[in-house]
Amino acid sequence: MTSQAGVSPKVMITTVWMTCISVQDAIFKNGVDIQLDPLDSFGNGKAMMVACRFKRDIQFKNGLRLKDDDLRLTFYLVEHQGKLKIRHGHLSKAWPETTPFPVNPVPQRPQPELAGHSARLDSISIAPFLDALNRRVNYSESVDMDGLESLQHPSQSRIYFPIQGSTELRGTRQYTQYLHALAEKYANPLLKYHHPVAFRDQSLVCLSTYAESSCLDKTTGEKISVSPLRVTYILQEHEGQWLCRHSHWSLPHPDVV
User: Fold this and answer.
1) For 61-90, what is each residue's pLDDT tens digit?
2) What's the CA gap between 95 and 115, in Å, rounded?
3) Which of 13, 31, 100, 168 is surrounded by the most beta carbons within 10 Å?
4) Per DSSP, what are the bridge partners of residue 50?
């Protein structure tokens, strides 16, 4: 897919990312090696989402080195003064399957810098998106698979970054299989969202929120709790409904700065 200007997502997102770090060039020692592998992109000249696999190797003058493979990256871009700018970014690494989940307090979220198309989810003008979150909670806690699937966009290029797992989920089939695998393994799921914020531009909405979750392992009977989860949903309008075209779940990974 290309943007309306005809620029490929890989070229565009690399340019945006390098622009972000160029202002910090003075603190880099040996430069920056960044490799991006775009997985999905959609939108228009006013707003766009790009989901990538991401590798980085950054050396700082103070000796700090950031070297990570297999990171997941979501960017929500909006047009500002004729150029697409990053409005929201979500960078993560899948949580190790052999490491117990952390249970930490959900951090207080700083007041976001509000623009004409962004607001806390306490405004009646964006009540439909708060309703979408509430329906997701209800469907999750009642293990309503049809309900959860009804919230998803039908695009088969849809990308979902789960908390764990070395690969992303793509399209309806993989997402459905993932939901059923969770339902077979866990019981009594609970989900709560904290401090949601919405960014909207034309036919795209970005929901950014913290969350906490718990469930019961059917095999061991152990209660599993996890927080603070960071969640990003990108909603796209489809046949009069706001449906999830991309989602990104993560925890603060112990090996990623």
Assistant:
1) 778 888 888 899 999 988 888 888 888 999
2) 33
3) 13
4) 41, 75
